[in-house]
Design brief:
The structure is a single chain. The strands form three sheets. Strands 3, 4, 5, 6, 7, 14 and 15 form a seven-stranded mixed beta sheet that branches. It contains nine helices and 15 strands. Helices cover 28% and strands 27% of the residues. With 326 residues, the chain is α/β, with parallel strands linked by helices. 49% of the residues are buried. It has two domains: 2-116 and 262-324, Quinone Oxidoreductase, Chain A, domain 1 (Alpha-Beta Complex), CATH 3.90.180.10; 124-257, 3-Layer(aba) Sandwich (Rossmann fold). Helix 4 links the parallel strand 9 and strand 10. It binds NADP nicotinamide-adenine-dinucleotide phosphate.
Length: 326
């Protein structure tokens, strides 16, 4: 088979060893791989794959099952699926634990399904499982235009949350409103803390989904309501910050950080638990049309470097960018 190899500044489509399924794994013939910001970091050597995972880039894909391990009962050769991967998606074939595989949700094209596993599992595990968001509460999503943000807006609305987001461009802000956000803050010119208070009659928001990290830490805590939950999943604005703990204590608020990729495959807090919840709770919302994959672009996998450059420079369209595999 072929896979993307990192060759200095270049990403090349190169012959690679064919994966065989372990007893609990399936092999997927990849139709498309979703690009994630973490792929850019991995390429620079800043985000190594977990021990034992493929060194090939790619944390999610869609495709057709090609081989099934001896202990796998659920999946059959020929099933159309998508999957959360620890690595290996930028390839013609990838081996993955069967518990990280999901059916393609009803009404979703096989290629577009590649853009769902990472955002669905990240947003569900963060906003609902860790953040305990409840119907009627207010959710602040930073980066409403991105892969994570476009999914979080739709999930929030579908769950009956009031959704407020931040976005940088006029076109991006309009896209967030179209997806159902109640209020979109221009992060260049407006103060999201003030807007959060205005929107909630001074109470503050109940849950924040944050992709910025250090730069927003203090202001995120200021935007929280009493008993609010700040969930941090990205560090686009740095990793180290100071926090006035007084505000945290007075509000009895929670600050938590989480990653998906480093979680165990099975057991407590595992990928298997998250994938199972996503299939039962989120896939029906996708099949009903309440949540749609937001795909900014499809590009051939041989153009992976150009797709990364667009994401890195901020010139990529909003939503997910997918790499299609011939
Ligand atoms: N912990 C985990 O398990 C996990 C899993 C998946 C993703 N992540 C992280 O989540 C982050 C978002 O991922 P993604 O796939 O959505 O990336 P993406 O599609 O590249 O989107 C990045 C987003 O960041 C926004 N942004 C940039 N500067 C901002 C600022 N100062 N204030 C508010 N928003 C700002 C952008 O908004 P504009 O376009 O409007 O500028 C854009 O919406 C990444 O850092 C990624 O590594 C973490």
């Amino acid at each position: 088979m072929h896979a993307i190899a990192i060759d200095g500044d270049r990403l090349t489509w190169t012959p690679a060893p064919d994966p065989a399924p372990g007893p609990d794994e399936v092999v997927i013939r990849v139709a498309a791989a979703g690009i994630n910001r973490a792929d850019l970091l991995q390429r620079k050597g800043q985000y190594p794959p977990p021990p034992g995972a493929s060194e090939v880039l790619g944390m999610e894909c869609s495709g057709v099952i090609d081989a099934v391990g001896a202990d796998v009962g659920r999946w059959r050769v020929g099933d159309e699926v998508c999957a959360l991967l620890a690595g290996g998606g930028y390839a013609e074939r990838v081996a993955v634990p069967a518990v990280q595989v999901l059916p393609v949700p009803g009404g979703v094209d096989l290629i577009d399904a590649a853009g769902l596993p990472e955002v669905a599992c990240t947003v569900w595990s963060t906003v609902v499982m860790a953040g305990r968001a409840q119907r009627g509460e207010t959710l602040l999503v930073h980066g409403g235009t991105g892969g994570i943000g476009t999914f979080a807006i739709q999930l929030g609305v579908a769950l009956g949350l009031r959704v407020m987001v931040t976005a940088g461009s006029a076109a991006g802000r309009q896209r967030c409103l179209d997806l159902g956000a109640e209020r979109v803050v221009d992060y260049h010119d407006e103060d999201f803390v003030e807007v959060a208070r205005e929107l909630t009659d001074g109470r503050g928001v109940d849950v924040v989904l944050d992709v910025i990290g250090a730069k927003y830490l203090q202001r995120n805590v200021s935007a929280l309501a009493t008993l609010g939950r700040l969930t941090i999943i990205g560090m686009q604005g740095g990793a180290k910050a100071e926090l006035d703990l007084g505000a945290l204590l007075t509000k009895r608020a929670t600050v938590l950080g989480t990653t998906l990729r480093s979680r165990p495959v099975t057991g407590r807090g595992s990928k298997a638990d998250i994938v199972a919840e996503v299939e039962h709770q989120v896939w029906p919302l996708v099949a009903s049309g309440a949540i749609r994959p937001v795909i900014g672009a499809r590009m051939p996998i041989t153009e992976a470097a150009a797709a990364h450059a667009a994401l890195d420079s901020g010139s990529a369209p909003g939503g997910k960018v997918l790499l299609t595999v011939p």
